[in-house]
Amino acid sequence: MNTTQKSVISSLAADRLSSGASFCPQCGKYVKQHTKHKKRFCSDRCRMKCWNSHPDLIRRMAYYSITCQNCGAEFRFYGNAHRKFCCRSCYDAYRKKGQHHDE
Ligand SMILES: [Zn+2]
Ligand SMILES: [Zn+2]
Predict the structure, then answer these.
(1) Is the pTM of this model over 0.70?
(2) Ligand showing the shortest atom-to-Cα distance for residue 87
């Protein structure tokens, strides 16, 4: 592929983006954009399908593997790498422990 071909393709991609049209990466269907928030998939079904067939993609996107500071259990949490506890009761228990040590 020479540079001219490359620039043609990238300008085509830019056209698609600027017109607000996009295509479902799972089934290739045209995805209508209703809102400002850009949809990538035509439906939840396609989104799930794609994620199921690319588990590495999900991990890269937003799943963090976190070890609970209280019980030591390893858990996965979506979207927030700063979480420290697997559940609310571990959070409470850890805080209580902390207070106990302070006394
Ligand atoms: Zn689709
Ligand atoms: Zn825990």
Answers:
(1) no
(2) 2
